[in-house]
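Notes, Module 5: Reading structure tokens.

Key idea: the token line is not a picture. It is a compressed description, and you learn to read it the same way you learned to read a sequence, by spotting repeated patterns. We will look at two proteins. The first is printed below with its tokens.
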Amino acid sequence: MDLFYARQARSEVVTWEFDYGPRMRAGENVVSAIATVIPPSGTAPVPVVGGISNNIVPVTVGPLSLVGKHFLDVLATTSLGDQVLARLELAVEF
């Protein structure tokens, strides 16, 4: 699992790009992805996965209703049937 860190304001709507290219073997490509937000508590917003291009998966998330640590998990499935997880830890402070 790859782990990244970033900040996002509660009111922001941000598209984060996850580049799986360095994790792919020769001839392997990302063919689909799902995303999940894990909030510090309560109900999570639903992230939107955009079109995958060159093994880059764009995911739009926000606004976020709570201050605190949120996680954005993106699980990509490859053309060889492998699944690769990336996690973005979002610090929401205002």
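Here is the second protein, with the sequence above and the tokens below, as before.
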Amino acid sequence: MKTLSKELFVETLQIIKAGYDRRCRFEKAMTEFNDAYFICNIGDEWLNQLVSMLEQLMDDENNPKYGTTISWWLWDNVDKKIWWEVDGQKFERDLTTPEALYDYLVEKAG
């Protein structure tokens, strides 16, 4: 498995999230100045490519129903917890922090 260091992974996720949050704030501010909904897609290509690189480096496989874990973590506005069941036993994993997400991906890749 090709992995990044935890520090670089966490830093990269924080940069992606901060850039996305800035863009959302910009879109919201621009919408207040006109009567239409403003969408800014400047930088989408590099952002999507960076996320794809993280997913590939961390062996984050695409689930046809749910997508990848990294994309889910970045873009879905949900509790960052996962649940699964094995032989009737239920498990829960808290992935709230980038560090917890990294640990989960490394363990999952084996």
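Summary for the second protein:
- The CA atoms of residues 4 and 57 lie 7 Å apart.
- The longest helix spans residues 6-32.
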